[in-house]
Amino acid sequence: MAEINGPKHVAIIMDGNGRWAQMRGRPRLMGHHAGARRVREIVEACPAQGVKYLTVFAFSTENWKRTQSEVAGLMKLFRRYIQREARDLLANGVRVRFIGDRVRLDDKLVKMMDELELLTSDNDKIHLTVALNYGGRDEVARATKRLAFDVAAGKLAPKDVGDETLAQYLDTCFLPDPDLVIRTSGEARISNFLLWQSAYAEYEFIETLWPDFTADVFAQVLGNYQTRDRRFGAVKV
Ligand code: IPE
Ligand code: IPE
Ligand code: MG
Questions:
Q1: Rounded to whole angstroms, what are the CA distances from 169 to 18, 34, 54, 123, 143?
Q2: Got the DSSP string for 103-165?
Q3: If you average pLDDT over residues 96-117, what whole number do you get?
Q4: Quick check: helix, strand or coil at residue 173?
Q5: Which of 13, 14, 17, 78 to mutate to test the pocket of ligand 1 (most atoms within 8 A of CB)?
Q6: In this predicted model, what pLDDT tens digit does every residue of 64-100 receive, in sequence order?
Q7: Is the CB of 13 inside a 6 Å radius of any atom of ligand 2?
């Protein structure tokens, strides 16, 4: 049964894949594969928890700094993931969308992302957004650039620019703000994730490594959220 006060939009920084593998004496990429398998379980757990929007951080604009083999392995994993999961995502009512800068991604992957977005565009049960080559600062900079072009073209007057205006230029223009941001693996930082959108999000930093993040752990974290008092700057009378 959906919790009345549960978060509608949960965003997750899926961290700790590398350490999970290293603890087992295995290559980091094996941790990424184990992590990818968890995504399905969490997506499928959403409806029962009343979560309509799930956004996951898969690759940051800073992750290009990793070794060429890890980056190439991740890109291959993203392609394989789309290929393998597309049919079930469609059948399970999941609408998939991607945020982040696609320019640096290879054409084959971008084509698969576009196709998956189109394929699932009529779904409405769960909205899964995957942040791929995503960085909050990069997103705001790209949005500002597009906004500036519209001003220069006379489509928008500078005096009309407010925070709602900028929000419409962000990659996340189709999403409500996240209610809850979860980061796994014990790191208490946001690493450039949804900077603008998380202005009033609740945060949960948990020790569990992403490949160990089960539907039960997810339910526990959502339970903690119920105890939060969200005031949005106001005083309750
Ligand atoms: C998160 O796991 C996945 C990506 C950033 C792609 P990490 O690869 O960052 O795992 P740790 O933090 O090194 O354990
Ligand atoms: C954030 O994790 C990015 C993703 C989970 C995709 P990182 O592991 O890249 O972040 P830092 O380097 O620990 O801040
Ligand atoms: Mg990490």
A1: 34, 34, 20, 24, 5
A2: TTS-HHHHHHHHHHHHHTTT--SEEEEEEEEE-HHHHHHHHHHHHHHHHHTTSS-GGG--HHH
A3: 98
A4: coil
A5: 17
A6: 999 999 999 999 999 999 999 999 999 999 999 999 9
A7: yes
- Which comes out higher in pLDDT, residue 237 or 19? 19
200: alpha, beta or left? (left if phi > 0; alpha if psi -120 to 50): alpha
Residue 8, SS3?
coil
Nearest CA to ligand 1 atom 6: 59
- Contact yes or no for 59/229 (Cβ under 8 A): no
Rounded to two decimals, the pTM is: 0.97
Over the range 55-80, which residues count as b (16 or more CB within 10 Å of their CB) and which as e?
A: bbbbbbbebeeeeeebeebbbebbbe
Could you read off the pLDDT of 16-49 as tens digits, one per residue?
Answer: 999 999 999 999 999 999 999 999 999 999 999 9
User: Per residue in 120-162, pLDDT tens?
Assistant: 999 999 999 999 999 999 999 999 999 999 999 999 999 999 9
CA dist 164 and 185 (Å) reads: 34
Structure-block tokens of residue 63: 């992750």
Q: What whole-number distance in Å separates Cα of residue 58 and Cα of residue 48?
A: 24
In the reported structure, the alpha carbon of residue 189 is separated from the centroid of ligand 1 by a whole-number distance in angstroms of 13
DSSP 50: T
Q: Which ligand gives the minimal distance to the CA of 20? A: 1
